[in-house]
User: Fold these one by one.
Assistant:
Number 1:
Amino acid sequence: MFGLLSQALKYIFIIIIYLFILTIIRMIYLDIRSMKQVDNIKDAAYLKVVNRLDSLNFKMQEYYILKNKIDIGRSSKNDIVIKDNFVSKNHARIFESEGSYFIEDLSSANGTYLNGQELTNIVELRDGDNIGVGFIQFIFVDK
């Protein structure tokens, strides 16, 4: 009886080790794949999602290239759709003016945060700024 239990535990332990190794390989693959996407957008300003995408219960891209005007919110009419209950239907807007990018909160219920501070008016974005919308965190990367 003890020998049978010992054999079963040995096989279960081996399976757990293989699952751990496969998880590590998957994470490396996803990291390498995301590095290829960065090469395609290196000439444009973009937003990078800081959250782990596999931990979210909704789909998001890892990078969003910024155009003249980008709307962020829960509604499917937005350019960046965040299906988070803490995000308003029309939450925030990022727009370009004279070569600079600006962010404004669109009177959202839970606010938009820039570097940990709640936005109260339109603010110019700088490279490396951290933008918080609901539970999602973005980093602004300027060209």
Note: The mean pLDDT is 88.
Number 2:
Amino acid sequence: MKVGINLNIKPKSMSKFFLFCSLIFSFVMFSQHKEATIDTNLLKTKLHQLVNEERSNNDRKLLGLDAYLKKAADDHAKYIAKAQTLSHEQTVSKKETPKERVYFYGGNSFVLVGENLLFTGIKDQIYSETDLDALALKMFNLWKKSPNHLKNILDHQYFYTEIGFSIDWENKKIYAVQLFGAK
């Protein structure tokens, strides 16, 4: 007993059949393709943990998180990514300096504000937790190896921090802004 499929398709309808199959195949392939992603919330948690471990190892108090610093850090990360440059200054009125940005977002109780910036290369991929560990360590080490950035990380006057990110997938870079503050 033979079992088979009888495809009695005429030449004209055969081209429609192949077009239909091609469309289905394309849809399946594109629906399986996933966009490159970085979970910036998890990246922030990992980077914050590394900063606090460094502070703990140097007998400093751990840094808490602050919503006003977060808004200002996110704002400046977007700004420097768009400008494709690292600068602590903005041309936007009322947000020119780190402290003015924190005040702009309602953090008027801060008497001292510091800022670390960086950008680094990223890959066009979906970042796993292991990839995020490596990226957080890479970013932390860039700051740790710079005396002025490490000084901010270890400054005993700071009690709060936040980290903002902006991802430039086109140029494969991630920009980070870490704000520090004391009330």
Note: Residues 1-7, 23-33 have pLDDT under 50 and may be disordered.
Number 3:
Amino acid sequence: MAIALQQAERGRGRTTPNPVVGAVVVTSDGVIAGRGHHEAAGGPHAEVRALADAGARARGATLYCTLEPCCHWGRTGPCTERIVEAGVARVVAAVEDPNPRVAGRGFRYLRERGV
């Protein structure tokens, strides 16, 4: 999670009105397979960038992220769908997203799909 927090800092000052978010994909062997951060509002979210960086190594891995993954459409698609499609086995998030469009729904979406 410390690395995810460091990743989040890379977007500070450029993501408004969105929060800074970082993510790290870690394989079952404990190897960092992908890293990502939200660079700018309207761009890919941290989770999507980390999954892209990890590629096929995301299957069966754990995704550490600083904020609950989004589950709604806005300027980008839902991160939760991408997480499930990538085959991530587990998600560890530092905090639940206070945005009323998410607020626990991202976690529920993932749990209902076995993540």
Note: The mean pLDDT is 93.
Number 4:
Amino acid sequence: MTAKQILIIDDEPDIRELLELTLGRMNLETRAAANLEEARNLLANYEFDLCLTDMRLPDGNGIDMVRHIQDIHPEMPVAVITAYGNMETAVTALKAGAFDFIAKPVDLDDLRNIVRAALRISPAESRNAGKGGPATDLASERMLGRSQAIQQVREMLAKLARGQAPVYISGDSGTGKELAARLIHDLGPRASHPFVPVNCGAIPEQLMESEFFGHKKGSFTGAVQDKAGLFQAADGGTLFLDEVGDLPIPMQVKLLRAIQEKSVRPVGTQSEIRVDVRILCATHKDLMSLVEEGKFRQDLYYRLNVIELKIPSLKQRAEDIPMLAEKLCSNLANNMGIDTPSISMDGIAALQNYDFPGNVRELENILERALTLCDGKEITASDLALTTTAQITHTQTREPVPTSEGESLDDYLQRIERTAIEEALSKTNQNKTAAAKLLGITFRALRYKLEKLGID
């Protein structure tokens, strides 16, 4: 088997020698350049599987080399070497297309891990990304649709899967943000390692540090045994932080440190544990607005948002609804053990005219209800029982029911509030996120009101 070829670019002879020795012990062949001009000459005459380049070079910088390689050899991963603590430069390199970065002074364990991760990427598979090869085939199979909007998302997924940069996945609730994260993982070099999703809003604040970083036995009441955290569970793979906007500020500080240092400290111990994870995150909230309001740390925002992937709403790709409805209907029918009914023309028209505040998740809920209620082998518009946003708005803004004799103002207002909430939940098939959006309040506010009014 031919040894992998590595291009090293650094103007310091000692660093070049260190990298050549370390990679040589990994049975890799290397060629070294002291500047960009020498590197371009080597690229013109030899084939390489990986490039390691310093950021500061006599005739330019590493970003220039990243972009040059992206233009002529987009399948080749590039890792940049940057001064310790210079995160802005590292983030710029990742946005330009770099695979990963190594901080100076070079930690040889980090170097070996990055090289191993980079060389797991098959150049043949990478060349197929975005060109109808295995990557886009898998994305097309899982993320259905023919619209231009969803095709662009699939092409972006194939590109993002090749790198190691953190990705911020934005989009409304129910659009498929976790599906996108899983595809980035499954299409990339970490596919054989764990994909660990975590809903940040579902973890009690007092348990967050233990859940993320683990704890030692006896470190707090109830810690009856050692426990590995989510970072350790995802070691070698991907950690997907869903609803990252719900993290409290103190946890944001600790998360930022873990990402930057690539290590965690379990609760109750002073020792650091090295972890190798790729961070993907998502939220339906506007993180930049939270930053401006002081509810989300700006440094963590820029560390997580190296590359943003926007998932379109179902309303923005209405032409995909027939295909999605057919596939979802088939899956649901198989799970129920029944024959798959067709969807009538008026049913398809009703779906395409509906706003879908809950997006694909709501479409699935609507079809599940219709499958249960429909008669025969066809789902009609009446089986779907859809209500337009205009009708919902009219229902919500109608004249309030007059107060009854002896009813206090507080009781009256609570009755009106209860009616509005119950109607919103009914119209959105009990989707609390979509109901909150219809009511013009936050999800947290709706949850509080549900508890206050005793609505199950």
Note: The longest strand covers residues 78-83.
